[in-house]
Amino acid sequence: MLAGSRAWRLAVWAVVLPLFAVLYGLPIAVIVLASLARTWNGALPGEFTLLHYAEAFRSDSLDALVTSLMTGAIASTAALACGTWAALALRRRVRLPARLLEAVFFVPSAVPSVSVGLGLLVAFSQPPFLLNGTRAIVLIAHFVLVFAFTFGNVTAGLARVPAECEQIAESLGARPFYRLRRVTLPLLTPYLIAAFSLSFALSMGELGATIMVYPPGWVTMPVRIFALSDRGAIFDAATLTTILGVATLIVLTVLSRVSSRAMLR
Amino acid sequence: MADLAAHAVASPRPGRSFRAGLLWVVPPLLVLLVLFFYPLSLIVREALAPEGEGASLLHIETVLRSREFVSGLYHTVVIAGSATAGCLVLGFVLSLVIAFIPFPGAPIAGRLIDMIIALPTFLMTLAFTFIYGSAGLLNGLLVDAFHLEQPPVDFLYSQWGVILAEITVFTPFVMRPLLAAFSTIEPAQLEVASSLGARPFRVIRQIILPASLPALLAGGSLCLLLTVNEFGIVLFIGAKDVITLPMLVYAKAIQEFDYTSACVIAVVNVVLSLGLYGLYRAIISHFGGGNAGRV
Amino acid sequence: MVDITAQEIERCAPLDGVRTASRTSGSRIGFEDVSVAYGGLTVLKSLTLTVHPGEIVALIGPSGSGKTTALRVVAGFVRPSSGRIMIGDRDVTDLAPYDRQIGMVVQNYALFPHMRVEDNVAFGLQAQGAPRDVIRQRVPECLAMVGMSAYGKRYPRELSGGQQQRVAIARALAPKPQVLLLDEPLSALDTQIRRAMIDEIAKLHHDLPDLTVLYVTHDQTEALTLANHIGIMRDGEMQAFGEAQALFRHPPTRFAAEFLGRANLLSVGGLTAAGPGEARVRFGGAELLARNPHNLPEGRDCLLCVRPHHMRFAGEGAVANALTGVVQSVQWQGDVHNITLTAEGESLRMTCVPMAVPPALGDQLRVCFDPSEVTLVPEDAPRG
To answer: Name one GO cellular component term (chain C) (predicted).
Structure first.
């Protein structure tokens, strides 16, 4: 549309496509290749091996994967419940108090994760809440960090649920909770799944707050990957990164399938 | 029906039910107060009046005047500013191509963009180690080709490495609102402009750029916020002289157990971030969520 | 816009005449001095109106006239800033929508997209806690009522607009409400289907004579065909209210005459009384005789309302109410001829049965109308 002549268009492609490939395709390819490499001294890996994967699934790294998946699932579920509740409570309220409350719910997304971790560390190392060194503190950190995104997504989804359907339900005698259960939530389902997906992905990659608060027995993938990379074991780090990426994408793909089915119905 | 009232649901005469309804917000608010605002307030308290000592501004002054803090603030600002500028330029160009000069692989490119957003930020840094590191792909190629003694490319462990990694990681956050904004530009408008003899650059400057300005501003301010807060990339690069505020907070608290200094720096960091966040929200609400493409 | 000809409108007598409370056991809808204001803006100004049990009242008016607001006040989605809403003998002003026992149908159907047709219809009964076997019996009954029995297992997205609206009506009627609110129910449908649906609704009301209906529309055909009484709304106020035929024949205001049936309105002067309920007025050089149902005083300047289909060609001899005009346009519309004339500087439209040889442009044409079919209407008070 923009480029008038064919030559112009080809020229644009010739510049932009390689740029795109180098910026986004190459890094992902390199990580995957490194996870399969025994050595890498020249332009390309010397020898390929599955040793890193065998290693990954034998050692603590498997625990890290399970830890990350569980943390992501628990924190995202809690954030979804809490965020949906908050979004429903503030729905269609246009007055100032409600607008301010909405802003309050968005604040955690603006605060750097390391500071969130520091705050939790300071707050929960002293009475009345002594949680330092427990798994709960990691879950709380992840919950706080993904909450605002869940809240935002659900709020945006609620705005798209047709008001007329809900009003008709009310006119037919549906009380608020009945209407919520039978009309609002079913119509909201695709957005709930999208909100969960985003927060799950965020949680899977979270490093800043986790590294501040994690206890010895609850090491997430990013923390483990950093430890490996810091030790110089970059091939193992690449392997775990690949596993983390693949696991995240599998969960997201499954969720988006479920979501599109919910949308169709 | 264009009746004014047709879409208004809130009652013009708020009864008891209105205020009672707002009470539903208390449980999630309480959760957030305990888990987020209470810890945040303790950081501020610790920064202002360290435990076991009286309130003193002397300590704060010491921290804020220390070389590591000044250098941390400097690096944070420079890295965030440069990375954001880079994201805006790169994001604008890539979005332009995807939206208006569609190429065969465009859908795949779109998927890749979404994937990058979903993946952890440090993935890019790790990949950069393999590509641009001293024993990496690029240096390997160059050393082989020109029979060099030393690896010629050595920018990764400087702030340029951080900036490049951040540009790559955060450009998708600019592209999303931009692509949304581009999709609202009517193709007919561009066709008319072209048929009137406007060259591509003129069309971009006079039609596309003004229409996407809100999205650029929103994406840019979001980028600033994300880059100021970014931790994983800086940590993974691990360059000794590239320390940002989040990195400094981590180092003080975890490596030096100096919680008070960590809290002082964290407060500065949080204030900076909240300011940027306020800017982002202001832009969104000024242009209306639709135009700016809220993320 | 469907514009069935005026002859057709007059042929259709109101459904069953005006029913009264004594004949039926339904509930009335009562607006008692109801006002609605948003911020500083009053969108409904002290409306007082009763829809008698078993009656259809249509509220008709242009966009922004407050008619939808009036309906939504009854439904409970808009709270009046003053006044009371009655359904039957209950004051429902402070009741939530779900406690009002109303049925409601809106323009865009608003079927629940995630439920099958039968679940949509069952929704109200389930929400109100009806026993399972009642629901099992009532749902097919309601689907049959609107001719949608074969579609129970479908999802709304698999239906056409007209079918969706039938389901929406069945859904509204399933819990047997006393009161049905229809908000532009046919506006999203195309002309053909709309005509069929008007007949359907008329038939439905014939089968459910106790149902009290408030029908909001901007379409005069729907209002004239279906309603016993019509209220004409403008700027949040009820401009005119009356029995459908009377309102059409003797519009009380200029706005009512123009909005309902697009009448010719001639500025006339020098009113003098002439017999019971009639008056003589001057139109340019001509003297015209017309009905004066609103008893306008002598000497008053007013408007003469002539429906296009009441104008006839006058022969040569002396005829009452004759005017001579010049033909400005002639349109053939299949079943009618539309002719526009200018007489005494004013434009006049007439419709007549198709002619083999229609008058040509510029022809002088002598037309007349029966004094009993033309009405004097007061000029509206200056607004603002």
So the answer is: ATP-binding cassette (ABC) transporter complex
B contacts of C79 (beta carbons < 8 Å): 11-13, 15
In whole angstroms, give the CA distance from residue B78 to residue C242. Answer: 76
A237 close contact with B: CB closer than 8 A: yes
pLDDT in tens, C337-352: 889 999 888 888 998 8
Question: Three-state DSSP class for A170?
Answer: helix
Q: C90 and C200 share a domain?
A: yes
C220: phi then psi, degrees, rounded to nearest 5: -70, -30
Inter-chain touch A171–C102, beta carbons under 8 Å: yes
- The string of pLDDT tens digits covering residues B43-98 is 898 888 776 666 567 778 888 888 888 888 999 999 999 999 999 999 998 888 88
For residues C14-37, one letter each, b for 16 or more C-beta atoms within 10 angstroms of the residue's C-beta and e for the rest, the string is bbeeebeeeebebbbbbbbebbbb
pLDDT category at B288 given cuts 50, 70, 90 is low
- Taking any CB pair shorter than 8 Å as contact, residues of chain A touching chain C are 162, 164-165, 167-175, 178-179, 182-183, 186-187, 265
**Whether residues C49 and C20 fall in one domain:** yes
pLDDT tens digit sequence for A45-56: 777 788 888 877
In this structure, what token pair is assigned to residue B170?
Answer: 């955060």
C293 falls within a domain: yes
Partner-chain residue, chosen from C37, C66, C94, that has the shortest CB–CB distance to B3: C66
Interchain CB contact of B10 with C (< 8 Å)? no
A64-68, A124-128, C194-198, range with the lowest pLDDT: A124-128
Q: Is the pLDDT confidence value at B123 over 50?
A: yes
Domain ranges in chain A are: 1-49, 51-264
Nearest-neighbour CA in chain C from A262: distance (Å): 8
The pLDDT confidence band at residue C15, using thresholds 50, 70 and 90, is very low
Looking at the structure, tell me whether residues C182 and C93 fall in a common domain: yes
Residue C50: give the domain boundaries.
6-101+178-255
> Is residue C226 domain-shared with residue C329, that is, in the same domain?
no
Pick the residue from chain C with its C-alpha nearest to B3: C64
Whether the pLDDT of residue B209 is over 60: the answer is: yes
Residue C248 counted as domain residue: yes
ipTM of the complex: 0.86
Is the distance from CB of C156 to CB of C164 less than 8 angstroms? yes
Q: What confidence tens digit (pLDDT) does each residue in C215-248 have?
A: 999 888 889 989 999 999 999 999 899 998 888 8
CATH classification at residue C19: 3.40.50.300
Residue A29, Cβ neighbours under 10 Å: how many? 14
B210 touches C: beta carbon within 8 Å: no
At which of C255, C271, C297 does a domain end?
Answer: C255
Tokens of A253: 């793909």
Contact B4 C38 (CB under 8 A): yes
Which of these, C321, C373, C370, C320, lies nearest to C343 by C-alpha position?
C321
When scoring B3, B11, B13 by the number of chain C Cβ atoms within 10 A, the one with the most, hence best to mutate, is: B3
Name which residue leads in pLDDT, A57 or C289. C289
> CATH number of the domain at A51-264, out of 1.10.340.30, 1.10.3720.10, 3.30.1780.10, 2.40.50.140?
1.10.3720.10
* Residue B87 CA: distances (Å) to CA of A263, B83, B84, B210: 34, 6, 5, 18
C310 shares a domain with C188: no
Q: Are residues C241 and C364 in the same domain?
A: no
How many Cα atoms sit within 13 Å of A24 on the Cβ side?
A: 23
A173–C128: do the CB atoms touch at under 8 Å? Answer: yes
B12/C contact by beta carbon, under 8 A: yes
Domain ranges, residue B269: 53-118+169-292
